[in-house]
DNA sequence: TTGTAAGCGTTATCAT
DNA sequence: ATGATAACGCTTACAA
């Protein structure tokens, strides 16, 4: 009890495989706190002992245990990222961008995938169990869910979800402005009968799809003289394809089709070309939003609005770090412009 | 000191936002250990106190801190997943499958993305810092790197990386057999001049691309009478496209092209159709391997070998759990068959 | 059924 | 420059 024997290693045999700072201290003949100091920059420690201790640590394969550190420092160095299966599978670059921004800041990513936009409940306990340094949510959360994190002082940044709540920030592509750019382009190209393929009919007022649709329609109305029709699908390729087909079954072909995301647009394009034998853009123009990687392939060449995912991810991480440092700062909503990528589909 | 006052809450003001079991205990007038018991199934606790404590916990927004729990239980309930940017971006379903298999087992996923197959060094410190319950690696690791984890008793499962090492398991698509299926099909279709688009020329002997290439060539040789040429690209769409173009610039068109992955195949297809004006499969057949989601779109309709990602992911998690429970079990290499998906490209 | 106390592996605050 | 020692928030004997 009064000795320096590591407590977790009563006999010669080790109970646990991972070496602890006690093991290193024991082997190096120093105090455990000395070992700890050796792994910290600018700590008062002589270069000679540091060198010796680090050498022994390497031999024993010792690295400070992040979990134990977190407990005392009150910082886990982990940020949770919640996103939907759809986002992961159709826009993996987004997750990649967030991952690399976090890596830049030396923060680990606890990734939680939810089945769909409204299934966040299933992962809430997981997100709450850890003392996360922050949460980046690419899905909607209601006020009650948000409060669970706010109460625990876990900063939330909403990624492309326009949610304003006390103590949370958000980063958004300027949906309305992006859609307006597309509206101008289609209008300038002379299109006067336009079909809009929106998200689900029951999408909430503040959803991405609604924002894009609304922005598009308002811009078109301002330009004037355009006949607009809207149909509503989900978000997927198949939704776009099927909804267009059932629309086109008993309606005239529009001159242009604006889809609120690229997946819908790709579905519509394929429906046009492979089912209806319509050539694009000769028979009809198609435009999307997001600029997913497929959109740039020659098979689609989709005219779309590019979301600047990389700067958005960087900014999202900045917002988290900022709020960790200064929790009481006023809420911020950062808006980043979309960039019109003119290809041949429209 | 002798009182039951929560130590972390000296005055009325709270230093930390997250409620601890002490806070709950204090509010409920019970011991801290009682609170702990309330959150554990089948523990000797009266239903009445449990109900009361849980109610108060909910009010305070208390959930047991996973980190602190891990420290004492020696189980972090976190599994690290390492994969390359390429895999994430070109086969996001893989990450999704792993994520959902882990979720099923109530394990959190620490996702680490590395720039490329050989950049794992950059994320090693992160993976080692946490006492992970296991590691699923979708990238290569050398023996020295593996040992770092083995030493810490962290089970590793290699996902589609054929690495045999003491104490580690792996789960693989049967590359050779899948390639052989494709070889049979192309042969049966009457193709006698076949171009293979392999991975990088310097890919290691035990790499996925080599295994597929080797399996294909051996099977073709067995069938006989086929003239085979190999070219080497990287792994990407652009690699496939560019390498095919530079090959075709001064060589005759083969009857069929087998690419060691779908991305290469998609690149080759687009090069054929959009640059060389060759129709597929009339002028040339193209086949791939993986069955990524794009392959099924009518724009490609790629004949390919489907990797059974979902069962593979489930099995990978099983292997981890198995080895956590019984670390000394013999190493296992699970092989799962690929399924030929015959579409119109070949 | 409940409370007391030890310990998980760290960092941080004191002494020395 | 280094060593004791007290947290961090839990789980788990052991006592009562």
Automatic annotation (TrEMBL), chains A, B:
InterPro entries: HTH_LacI, LacI/GalR-like_sensor, Lambda_DNA-bd_dom_sf, Peripla_BP_I. The keyword Nucleotide-binding does not apply. PROSITE patterns: HTH_LACI_2. Gene3D superfamilies: 3.40.50.2300, lambda repressor-like DNA-binding domains. SUPFAM superfamilies: lambda repressor-like DNA-binding domains (SSF47413), Periplasmic binding protein-like I (SSF53822). Keywords: DNA-binding, Transcription, Transcription regulation. GO terms for molecular function: DNA-binding transcription factor activity; transcription cis-regulatory region binding. Residues 19-73 form the HTH lacI-type domain. It comes from the Bacteria. This is LacI family DNA-binding transcriptional regulator. It comes from Silvania confinis. The lineage of its organism: Bacteria, Pseudomonadati, Pseudomonadota, Gammaproteobacteria, Enterobacterales.
């Amino acid at each position: 009890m009064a000795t320096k024997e590591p407590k977790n290693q009563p006999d010669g045999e080790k109970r646990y495989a991972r070496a602890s700072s006690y093991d290193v201290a024991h082997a190096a003949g120093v105090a455990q706190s000395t070992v700890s100091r050796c792994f910290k920059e600018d700590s008062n420690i002589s270069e000679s002992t540091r060198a010796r201790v680090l050498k022994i640590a390497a031999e024993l394969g010792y690295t400070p245990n992040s979990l134990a550190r977190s407990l005392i420092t009150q910082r886990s160095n982990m940020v949770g990222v919640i996103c939907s299966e759809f986002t992961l599978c159709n826009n993996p670059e987004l997750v990649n961008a967030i991952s690399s921004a976090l890596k830049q800041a030396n923060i680990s990513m606890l990734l939680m995938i939810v089945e769909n936009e409204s299934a966040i409940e299933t992962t809430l306990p997981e997100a709450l169990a850890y003392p996360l340094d922050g949460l980046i949510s690419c899905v909607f959360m209601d006020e009650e869910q948000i409060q669970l994190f706010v109460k625990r002082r876990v900063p939330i940044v909403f990624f492309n979800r326009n949610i304003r709540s006390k103590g949370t920030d958000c980063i958004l592509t300027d949906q309305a402005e992006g859609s307006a750019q597309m509206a101008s382009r289609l209008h300038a190209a002379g299109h006067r009968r336009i079909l809009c393929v929106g998200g689900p009919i029951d999408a909430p007022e503040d959803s991405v799809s609604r924002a894009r649709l609304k922005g598009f329609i308002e811009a078109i109305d301002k330009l004037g003289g355009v006949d607009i029709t809207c149909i509503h699908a989900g978000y997927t390729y198949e939704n776009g394809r099927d909804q267009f087909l059932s629309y086109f079954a008993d309606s005239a072909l529009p001159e242009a089709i604006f889809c609120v995301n690229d997946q819908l647009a790709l579905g519509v394009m394929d429906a046009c070309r492979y089912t209806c034998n319509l050539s694009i853009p000769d028979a009809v123009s198609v435009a999307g939003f997001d600029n997913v990687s497929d959109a740039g392939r020659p098979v689609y060449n989709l005219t779309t609005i590019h979301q600047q995912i990389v700067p958005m991810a960087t900014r999202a991480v900045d917002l988290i770090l900022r709020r960790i440092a200064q929790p009481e700062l006023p809420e911020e909503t950062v808006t980043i412009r979309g960039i019109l990528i003119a290809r041949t589909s429209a």
